[in-house]
Design goal:
The complex is a heterodimer. By secondary structure, chain A is α+β, with helices and mostly antiparallel strands. Chain A has 3 domains: 115 residues, 2-Layer Sandwich (Aldehyde Oxidoreductase, domain 4), CATH 3.30.365; 187 residues, Aldehyde oxidase/xanthine dehydrogenase, molybdopterin binding domain (Aldehyde Oxidoreductase, domain 4, 2-Layer Sandwich); 311 residues, Aldehyde oxidase/xanthine dehydrogenase, molybdopterin binding domain (Aldehyde Oxidoreductase, domain 4). Chain A has 19 helices and 27 strands. Chain B has a 5-stranded antiparallel beta sheet with strand order 4-5-8-6-7. Chain B has a 4-stranded antiparallel beta sheet with strand order 9-10-11-12, sandwiched between helices. A 3-stranded parallel beta sheet of chain B has the order 1-3-2, covered by helices on one side. In chain B, helix 11 packs antiparallel against helix 12. The radius of gyration of chain B is 19 Å and the shape is globular. Chain B starts with 7 loop residues before the first strand and ends with a helix. The chains are: A alpha+beta, B alpha+beta. Chains A and B meet through helix 2, helix 6 and helix 18 of A and helix 8 and helix 12 of B.
Chain lengths: 712, 325
């Protein structure tokens, strides 16, 4: 072994591991698979938002059907996640529209649909709660306290207050949720489109009352996730498994787009209130933030979403006196859950629009205001985390301002129908607080005749997991990229590397793999793989997460090192206003991101472009119309995401400031790009003289918003 | 994915055969050309015809040609053929533009001009899948016993006319040829529509739209403006077709038609009258635009708030007329 500098993989745009299969159509997604004797499953859901089930009338001949309700659950009727509050199938009580009640399976899909139309359920309805401000059930409350808030406000010349609102957003992965459950070997195997095989594994163990070795979860090629396949697959896999368990036959359950949108999780909507003390010259002296998120009917991952949300709520700015109070509460809508960014896009939207408003109030340049207060190495965050040398807030800000020619354009656009706005943001890589220590993720590397095989539970969901992991391993072992294989994410073969979420797959799991490869290289001691295997038979190296020394976190007080590292970003977005309709069209995005090290520059750029486009939708177009607790626009004809024509040109600049504990210096990149565009777009609209403080900033909202001169 | 219900499919080669099969099928039958409207509706079980008569093999329907100075478009012409036809582009740019605003290029490579004229009316409570509609106990458009959810007191369905080509075709005075096998009749496109979301067409179910006839292209110009949220895909939720005839610098006649605000296209007679006898200039356009807002009475059943759509009406009429100056 031994590679020359030229053959190194890291930093080069090597071909994707699964790229050829995807472009040739050879890749198998879950709906492409079939098993002998397979049935098709269907979920009967509640048509009310709150109440009790009184009667279920089937209305069809049962022959040939497998019918299951909550009484057919062999183990505990819960979707095991943080809190065991969500039933896999409703028992008596219904807490949201589209809550699963009954499952049907049949060989013939037509018969299944006919049968479904004949099911009638009687309810005793109750008054639902849709307004989070009126909720009487709080899932989680978090308080972050730094310094002495009263003192901070006493030091201020001016106090700027504001309320900001963000809406629901649908993940809209291209492949809807789907699984196949196969009863085998006295247990169950589930194949599915999912992000976190071991989350599903645990949920199935609890639901079916099975031991570890009786449950197997295999990820099939997955058409996107964006967080929407973090927790929900545990639900749909549970349903397929219940039907398979009862029928003793394989059962396929694949949602169509409407069902996927109506029933599965969305980004939490929220109301964020800021009160900031600032001196005349623009120094932040006190920050008080109140975050309220709507969790929907069950807890799912809401507490962790809130946690990331409140930790990012100040934006990347230093201040000695901070109080952040966050709550996530229950309402009678389908549960909200994980979505790229995970609370941070909501709170940083508020922070960056508020920052703009502070500059407007003080009458100072908003870039200067940001420069003055942006985090520097050695500063402490709201949780007291001391920031390291890889703190690049100022660098990304200055790069974006100069690359976009921000100041000159802002002057030139004044009084026209063009606007320009900016947002500075940061995003913690990996699980929050002590999360990574608790997870204790493992990764394995197996020596093969021709190289090495990666064994991780991290999933490829379009973002490039397999490719990027193989690059890290290839260079660490000093072998060609093509000599590294990646095993399928199959719980029967791979260790639990934790979930594929939280911008952790490269920085955290990639680091464990790097350590596996280092040890394998030492163990080989210069021998070839063939020689080693001939001599010793096999070599598998497994390593567990081990955090950098000195990381400290206290979950009781919310003090300490919230993340191993932060990525840093700055977006400048130019918009054009239609003078007649007030429709806002973004024309150009300058995105500058500091991500430690781009293992695969094209894939990293793809993450930034994709996250930016998704955020353009969040900012301007995507509105989940909830009517009586049900999504009224659950189709692609009326839930509008940006088309190519609605997506501006995106100029991406990647900066590298290596994080010493990341593989080859890498930090996370997956989520951060979705934090900045929404506030940058709203700030661009503000530069046109409109006081917009909520998204999506539709023309109707913009027309209703007061003009800036009026509201100041 | 959503799947089509079972149905029997015929693909006749002549108009006469098509009409005969469709007549025999009665209320269970439907014609299909490109299928971009019907098949999604069938997947959502909004329509469940048992007999579907495919028109794509009837070559007569795809002809394009001149007849006494008029341009005759076969109803089966693909929208992309119409959009890219050199004569349509040169002489009927308003129509070419309206066609180019329909959905997306792939859809225009499937959908036909005839299909666009006969597009089903649309509504937020109707264009939903079966389960969703079942959860609200359906609506009047699919179940006559039910109410209209847009306006529960309404005696008729309020689903919206949403075809891009219709307002401009009406404005330019285009005509449609309907065939019932042996007999043919020609009607003004305007007379094809009825302001009822369910019975929105004034044609017998078995009558086949075979041709769209464009008047000779002299002495007038037409334009089209469309409101939608995105740059592609979306149906119009307010649209304006305008045509102006001029002599010696003065408007001799004008037609202004709104789409997307009622179950049928809406003629703006008052605004048309304002223009007659005046030059088409800033003042006359403003006056016409001011007269246009009143008759625009959109309901809350499409994208965008209905108040906003109403508010945009005058602006869109102004822009459509400004295109013709």
């Amino acid at each position: 072994m031994g590679a020359t500098e030229k053959s190194r993989a890291v930093g080069r745009n090597v071909p994707r591991k699964e790229g050829l299969d995807k472009v040739t159509g050879a890749a198998k997604y879950v709906d492409d698979l079939t098993f002998p004797g397979m049935l098709h499953g269907r979920t009967i859901r509640s048509t009310i938002a709150a109440g009790e089930i009184e009667n279920i009338h089937l209305g069809f001949a049962r022959k040939g059907f497998t019918i299951a309700d909550c009484r057919d659950v062999p183990g505990r009727n819960v979707v095991a996640l943080i809190e065991l509050d969500q039933p896999c199938l409703a028992e008596r009580r219904v807490r949201h529209f589209a809550e699963p009640i009954l499952l049907l399976a049949h060989e013939d899909r037509e018969r299944l649909l006919e049968a479904e139309s004949l099911v009638a359920i009687d309810y005793r309805e109750e008054t639902p709660i849709y307004d989070p401000e009126k909720s009487d059930h709080c899932f989680k409350e978090i308080r972050i306290e730094k310094g002495d808030l009263a003192r901070g406000f006493a030091e201020a010349d001016v106090v700027v207050e504001g309320e900001y609102r963000v809406g629901l957003q649908e993940q809209l992965y291209i492949e809807p949720n789907g699984v196949i459950a196969v009863p085998e070997n006295g247990g169950i195997t589930v194949y599915g489109s999912l992000q976190c095989p071991y989350y599903v594994h645990r949920a199935l163990r609890v639901l079916l009352g099975l031991s570890d070795d009786k449950v197997r979860v295999v990820q099939t090629e997955t058409g996107g996730g964006f967080g929407g396949k973090e927790e929900y697959p545990s639900m749909i896999a549970g349903h397929a498994a219940i039907l398979a368990w009862k029928s003793r036959r394989p059962v396929k359950l694949v949602y169509d787009r409407v069902e996927d949108m109506v029933a599965t999780t969305k980004r939490h909507p929220g109301v964020i209130r800021h009160s900031t003390g600032v001196t005349r010259d623009g120094t932040l002296t006190a920050i008080k933030i109140d975050v309220l998120l709507d969790g929907g009917a069950y807890m799912t991952l809401s507490p962790v979403v809130l946690s990331r949300g409140v930790i990012h709520a100040t934006g990347p700015y230093r201040c000695d006196h901070v109080r952040i109070q966050g709550r996530v509460v229950a309402t009678n809508t389908p549960p909200n859950g994980a979505f790229r960014g995970f609370g941070a896009p909501q709170t940083q939207f508020a922070a960056e629009v508020h920052m703009e408003r502070i500059a407007e109030t003080l009458g100072i340049d908003s870039v200067r205001l940001r420069e003055k207060n942006a985090f520097r190495p050695g500063d402490t965050t709201s949780t007291g985390q001391k920031l390291g040398r890889d703190t690049s807030a100022l660098r990304v800000l200055r790069e974006a301002v100069s690359r976009s020619d921000f100041r000159a354009k802002r002057r030139a656009y004044r009084g026209t129908n063009r606007g320009i706005g900016l947002a500075l943001f940061f995003h913690g890589s990996g699980f929050t607080g002590g999360g990574e220590v608790k997870l204790a993720s493992k990764a394995s590397l197996e020596l093969t005749e021709t190289g090495a095989r990666i064994l991780v539970a991290s999933t490829e969901i379009g973002q490039g997991t397999r490719t990027m992991h193989a690059q890290i391993v290839a260079d660490t072992l000093g072998i060609p990229y093509d000599a590294v294989e990646v095993a399928a994410a199959d719980t029967a073969r791979v260790p639990d590397s934790g979930p594929t979420v939280a911008s952790r797959t490269c920085m955290v799991v990639g680091k464990i793999l790097e350590r596996c490869a280092q040890e394998m290289r030492r163990e080989l001691g210069g021998r070839s793989a063939q020689d080693y295997l001939a001599e010793r038979g096999s070599l598998v190296v497994t390593k567990e997460y081990s955090g950098p020394d000195g990381l400290y976190w206290d979950d009781e007080t919310y003090r300490g090192d919230a993340y191993g590292a932060f990525g840093w970003g700055c977006d400048v977005i130019e918009v054009e206003r239609d003078p007649e309709t007030w429709q806002i069209r973004p024309t150009r995005v300058t995105a500058v991101c500091e991500i430690g090290k781009a293992i695969h520059p094209v894939l990293a750029r793809g993450q930034i472009e994709g996250g930016t486009a998704q955020a353009v939708g969040y900012a301007l177009l995507e509105e989940v119309a909830m009517r009586d607790g049900r999504m009224a626009n659950a189709q692609l004809t009326n839930y509008l995401v940006p088309t190519t024509l609605d997506t501006p040109e995106i100029d991406v600049t990647i900066l590298e400031n290596p994080y010493e504990h990341g593989p080859f210096g890498a930090k996370g990149v997956g989520e951060m790009p979705i934090d900045g565009p929404a506030p940058a777009i709203v700030n661009a609209i503000r530069s046109l003289g409109v006081d917009v403080r909520s998204i999506p900033a539709t023309p109707e909202r913009i027309l209703e918003a007061p003009s800036l001169s009026a509201s100041r | 994915m959503m799947r089509l219900p079972k149905f029997r499919y015929y693909s006749p080669r002549t108009i006469a055969d098509a009409v005969a099969i469709r007549s025999d099928a009665g209320p269970e039958g439907a014609y299909v050309a490109g299928g971009t409207d019907l098949y999604p509706n069938m997947k959502r079980r909004q329509q469940t015809p048992k007999v579907v008569v495919g028109l794509s093999r009837i070559s007569e329907l795809s002809r394009i040609g001149e007849q006494n100075g008029r341009l005759v478009l076969g109803a089966g012409l693909l929208l992309s053929n119409v959009e890219n036809d050199p004569r349509v582009r040169a002489e009927y740019p308003g129509l070419a533009h309206a066609v180019s605003e329909i959905s997306t290029p792939p859809l225009r490579n499937m959908g036909t001009i005839g299909g666009n004229l006969l597009l089903d009316t649309r509504c937020n409570y109707y264009d939903q899948n079966y389960e969703w509609r079942k959860a609200i106990d359906f609506c009047m458009k699919t179940d006559r016993q039910q109410i209209c959810w847009v306006a529960p007191g309404s005696p008729k369905c309020l689903a919206v006319q949403s075809a891009d080509t219709v307002p401009v075709l009406i404005a330019m005075g285009a005509r449609a040829v309907l065939s019932s096998g042996r007999e043919e009749r020609e009607v003004a496109v305007e007379d094809l529509y009825r302001n009822d979301g369910i019975d929105y067409l004034r044609k017998r179910p078995e009558e086949l739209l075979t041709e769209v006839v464009l008047p000779a292209a002299n002495g007038w110009r037409a334009s089209y403006r469309k409101l939608r949220r995105r740059g592609a895909f979306d149906f119009p939720v307010l649209s304006v077709g305008a045509a102006v005839w001029r002599e010696d610098g003065k408007v001799t006649s004008a037609r202004l038609v709104l789409g997307g605000v009622a179950s049928a296209p809406v003629r703006l007679s008052a605004a048309e009258a304002v223009l007659a006898g005046r030059p088409l200039d800033k003042e006359s356009i403003e006056a016409a635009a001011a007269a246009a807002a009143g008759p625009s009475r959109p309901m809350d059943n499409t994208d965008f708030s209905f108040l906003w759509r109403k508010e945009m009406t005058a602006k869109f009429v102004r822009s459509a007329l400004a295109d013709l100056v």
